[in-house]
Amino acid sequence: MIRSASLILAGAISAGTAVADEVNIYSYRQPELIQPLLDGFTDATGIRTNVAYINKGLIERLKAEGKRSPADIILTTDISRLTGAKEAGVTQTVGSDVLDAAIPDNLRDPEGHWYALTTRARIVYASKERVAEGEITTYEDLADPKWKGRICTRSGTHVYTLGLIGAMLAHNSVEDTETWLKGVKSNLAREPEGNDRAQVKAIWAGVCDISLGNTYYMGAMLKDPEQTEWANSVRLEFPTFADGSGTHVNVSGVALTSSAPNREAAVAFLEYLTSPDAQAIYAAEVSEYPARPDATISAQVDSWGQFNPDTTSLAKIAANRAEALKLSERVDFDGASGSDG
Predict the structure, then answer these.
(1) How many Å separate Cα 102 from the centre of its chain?
(2) pLDDT given for residue 30 in this prediction
(3) Among 11, 41, 234, 288, which is least packed, fewest CB within 10 Å?
């Protein structure tokens, strides 16, 4: 039996009442997206799960709860959130040979605090009508003056943007990255605003011709009748870094909390999540790529095209976050766009 609870988990389960045959999960992802995994895990092991959906303040909540936290697992998105949890001291080393064998080195914490479950590429959405195939091949191309007034993107301080800037720093000097970021800003059609889907809508509306976005938003738009027309107006392009390092990827992932009252069951859950079947189920559910190389990619995601992912350690990229934020603020990326003078 699966018991899925939202914000009532902490009230329903306290450190003193946790039992051996359950796993308590604090999830940044909506419960319905992970329900197939929960069902599969319980069917395979008999261990039940409890989920609290927490999309804000997850780390702060764990710090406040301290050793009495009922949570065993953090399930979240973006490398900065995973590394932030580690830095806050609310996670612990898992120490699982199963996990280490399943997930590539660059997609997990060197000390075993967190592991990627799925990856998403940070790619270019390009207008089918106004951008020729192959017209943009690298992230560096985004600074080319030919794109002046033609790019839309979300805020320069958003974690997804900072992740890309951090990746650029991993491949280039601070000075070169700053020059690139200034070039991108000068090419913006409008001040950064909205989420990744809002940028695709802007392309559909003729506001801009290309935008930056995560691949899984294509899947999300195709599921929404209102947004299908936006999705059909664009093509996915997989740029690489100019040094040939591949396409920047980010992750959704998991970590074992430092309190973990049900540690043995929690580790079993983590190992289940990295099994080939669970990887395929979860990746298909969220329109992402499995972190495990031998897991099956869904037909829809596979249809978007093959690409060469950058294998730079995500821990290294995450370590550049502070410098990335500094650069974004220094060039006033979210200020008036270059197209407005």
Answers:
(1) 19
(2) 86
(3) 11
At residue 55, the pLDDT reads: 85
pLDDT at 123: 98
pLDDT value of residue 337: 61
Find, among 126, 114, 156, the residue nearest to 251 by Cα.
Answer: 114
User: What torsion do the CA atoms of 281, 286, 289, 290 make, to the nearest 10 degrees?
Assistant: -40
Q: If we measure between CA atoms, which residue out of 152, 210, 139 comes closest to residue 181?
A: 139
Q: Which residue has the tokens 């959906």?
A: 53
Q: Is beta strand 249-257 parallel, antiparallel or unpaired with respect to 73-77?
A: antiparallel
CA 153, CA 162: separation in Å to the nearest integer? 12
How do beta strands 91-92 and 48-53 pair? unpaired
Chain centroid, CA 231 distance in Å: 20
Residues in the chain where the model's pLDDT stays below 70: 1-20, 337-341
- How far is the CA of 292 from the CAs of 8, 132, 142, 153, 337, in angstroms? 33, 33, 31, 30, 40
Give the CA distances from residue 328 to residues 110, 160, 198, 237, in Å, rounded to whole numbers and listed in that order: 28, 12, 21, 24
CA–CA distance, 337 with 192 (Å, rounded to integer): 8
Token code pair at residue 337: 């766009």
Whether residue 213 contacts residue 175, with contact meaning beta carbons closer than 8 Å, is answered with: no
Q: Which residues contact 325 (CB under 8 A, 6 or more apart)?
A: 157, 162
Give phi and psi for 208, each to the nearest 5: -145, 175
* Burial class of residue 47 (count of CB atoms within 10 Å of its CB; 0-12, 13-18, 19+): buried
With beta carbons less than 8 A apart as the criterion, state whether 284 and 40 touch: no
Q: Do 255 and 112 form a contact (C-beta atoms < 8 A)?
A: no
- The proportion of the chain whose per-residue pLDDT surpasses 90, expressed as a percent, equals 88
